[in-house]
Specification:
The chain is an alpha/beta fold. The protein folds into two domains: 116 residues, Rossmann fold; 89 residues, Winged helix-like DNA-binding domain superfamily/Winged helix DNA-binding domain (Arc Repressor Mutant, subunit A), CATH 1.10.10.10. Helices cover 41% and strands 21% of the residues. It is built from eight helices and eleven strands. It has a five-stranded parallel beta sheet, sandwiched between helices. Helix 2 runs parallel beside helix 3 and helix 6 crosses helix 8. The longest helix has 14 residues.
Length: 217
């Protein structure tokens, strides 16, 4: 799942990027509101972590502009202010959640995963496709009730495929949402699909010639 982090505290951003990557997210970053708005409108993200007090463009303005452009990506606002009016203002402009600095990284990850479970599209807490059952929050995966061990990147790829099990997912889309570098060679997708098949069975992930992959279910 690809997340955009927008904050002008560079040390915090680097720490969040490392931590979220270790949790299996692909992470893009911006250090001001204008750049954050450009990325959020030009690219497809699964969630946005957005500071309020930003150079060049205020966080509230970024959210307002995104919603005005019909960009409905879930937004988690970060702020050093914890007044009830600040929370209300953030939610009123179209944000989905609000977290006060300083915050626990564990809580941040839990909040992001909670946003991923909400509609627009159905996002259940535990993903089930056929005999596979994946709990992204605990990174626990079972196949027919038996636990299966996957790497962080394998889990991220499987999670994306399971969240979109109702359709064929192209290689470019998988690369852009699962890997940190959108310019990564597309062959990496084939390699990791191969890893999943070895651990889950050859027919767990089906190839749709010329289109991409879909989960067997």
């Amino acid at each position: 799942m690809r997340v955009l982090v927008v904050d002008d505290e560079r040390g915090l951003v680097r720490a969040l990027q490392r931590g979220l990557t270790a949790e299996g997210f692909a992470v893009d970053v911006a250090y001001d509101g204008e750049h954050g708005l450009e990325l959020a409108t030009d690219r497809d993200y699964d969630a946005i972590v957005l500071d309020i007090m930003l150079p060049r463009r205020h966080g509230y303005d970024v959210v307002r502009e995104l919603r005005a452009r019909d960009v409905w990506t879930p937004v988690l606002l970060l702020s050093a202010k914890d007044g009830e009016h600040d929370v209300a203002d953030g939610l009123d402009v179209g944000a989905d959640d609000y977290l006060t600095k300083p915050f626990s990284f564990v809580v941040l990850v839990a909040r992001i995963r909670a946003l991923l479970r909400r509609p627009v599209a159905e996002r259940p807490a535990v993903l089930r496709v056929g005999d596979l059952e994946l709990d992204p929050a605990t990174r626990s995966l079972t196949l027919g009730g038996a636990p299966v061990a996957l790497t962080v990147r394998e889990l991220a790829l499987l999670e994306y495929l399971m969240r979109h099990a109702d359709r064929v997912v192209g290689k470019v889309e998988l690369r852009d949402h699962v890997w940190d570098a959108p310019g990564e060679d597309l062959n990496v997708v084939e390699v990791y699909v191969g890893y999943l098949r070895r651990k889950l069975g050859r027919d767990a992930v089906l190839t749709v010639r010329g289109a991409g992959y879909r989960m067997a279910g």
